Amino acid sequence: MEIVSPHDPQARYCRKVGASTTNEWVGYRDHQSETCEPDRPNVIVHVLTQPAPVQDITAVEAIHEGLDNTGLTPVEHLVDSAYVTPDLIHHTTQRWGITLLGPLRADPRGRAGFTKADFHVNWDAHTVTCPNGITSPPWKPTLGTVGPAFPRCFLERTAGPVPTARPAPVMPTAKAAT
Q: What is the pLDDT of residue 49?
């Protein structure tokens, strides 16, 4: 990594592209955990600082370990999409007993595999059935940024090998100049 500040050799450049904004800075990423009980003040109970280029998703384990070490392990942890993957939702529940709640990222386009449309959602039973016919355990209802959301995903080792639902797209190649 390149040193970008003679005043702080550990500071790094970062560029974070969001849905509507792009932020650039030199420094660090700060992950703050706070309480959010109704009718009580919000209190910051844990802070984790990492170098700026380190992605948010890598902070979740250290955050939960820090909260557990201080006896402040939450039952639910509300996070944004930068902190959520299917494997992490499962791991957090298994290791820490914490329900990780946050919106999953949109379907990746341009790659082979399934999309959200390939899964059947049973809203009454709070389950999802994958294209292989495996049904998830019920999820706990929550609200995402644009409406109802569900923090339930399938792990490859649970659902088994997954056949490709659609072929990978063929990318156009540039024509040679003549």
A: 93
- 141-144: long-range contacts at Cβ-Cβ below 8 A with a sequence spacing of 24 or more? 142/101, 144/103
Supply the DSSP symbol for 114. Answer: -
Q: Which of 8-22, 24-38, 157-171 has the lowest mean pLDDT?
A: 157-171
| pLDDT for residue 105 | 74
CA distances from 146 to 101, 103, 151 (A): 14, 9, 14
Could you count the other beta carbons within 10 Å of the beta carbon of residue 155?
11
> For 95-117, b where at least 16 C-beta lie within 10 A, e where not — what string?
ebebbbbbbbeeeeeeeeebeee
Instruction: Kindly give the pairing relationship between strand 99-101 and strand 76-78.
Output: parallel
Please indicate whether residue 11 or residue 177 has the higher confidence score (pLDDT). 11
Q: How far is the C-alpha of 122 from the C-alpha of 139, rounded, in Å?
A: 11
Sequence-distant (6+) residues with CB within 8 A of 114 are 130, 131, 162, 165, 166
Say if CB 59 and CB 47 are below 8 A apart: no
